[in-house]
Amino acid sequence: MQGSVGSPSPSEHETVGAYALGILDDAEATAFESHLVGCEWCAQQLDELAGMEPMLAALADLPGTGTPAIGESLSARPSPRLVDKLVDEVSERRAQKRRRSFFLVAAAAALIVGGPLTVLAASGGDGGSTGVQAGSTKSAAVTTKAAFDALPTKVTATDDATKVSATVAMLEKGWGTEVGVELKNVTGPEKCSLIAVGKDGKRETVSSWSVPEWGYGIPGATTEQAKNPLYVMGGAAFKANEIDHFEVMTFGGKKLVEIDA
């Protein structure tokens, strides 16, 4: 018997479907099992075709199939055409399942690696998280701060009235400008946006986020999450030289701080 995994010849491996259906007689089944010991290809096919008997049983109730019901003699075997059809159907369903799994993994990877917006506090989360979740969030927060730190152009401003401080970092890209902001001394609960204002007066939302009740970057704060600043990454369609300034605005229309570009 062959032990290779290459493409088999039909004469050697054509009984795998019939064996999976349980329609071989004793002599045929014994001969196939002897072959199966040394054939990885057939073993793999047999694993993929597991569960064929329930499908065959379900087809038994359909008119005109001629398929024996469970418990009947296997001497009235399904035709070779029906066996081939069942084998092909199960193989296709297995392939579709594998493709769906691949697409789900790919989509998840795209969200993790190439998401358009990252909003995280340097403290590593909003508190209350423990175990793996907390560790993962903290790692992501460190990565967000590192992305902000890597942007070469940085401008800082503090509003005299609100006392909110923000540093905007920029890097021009082919698609526009990558933008990051470090936000300090902002209290919540509040919802905010970073707005890029072009030299032509046009306005574009770079990113938006929520500020929890304890706030971010609060001087003298007693908790880690309130003490650390918030880092937000986003992007603008403007080229860097097209931006006049940035504004941190609440959803209610209040300007917290303005930063020159």
Automatic annotation (TrEMBL):
Membrane-spanning parts: 102-122
Keywords per UniProt: Membrane, Transcription, Transcription regulation, Transmembrane, Transmembrane helix
Name recorded for this polypeptide: RNA polymerase subunit sigma
Pfam families noted in UniProt: zf-HC2 (PF13490)
Top-level lineage group: Bacteria
Organism of derivation: Streptomyces antibioticus
Domain called Putative zinc-finger: residue spans: 16-43
Keyword Metal-binding annotated: no
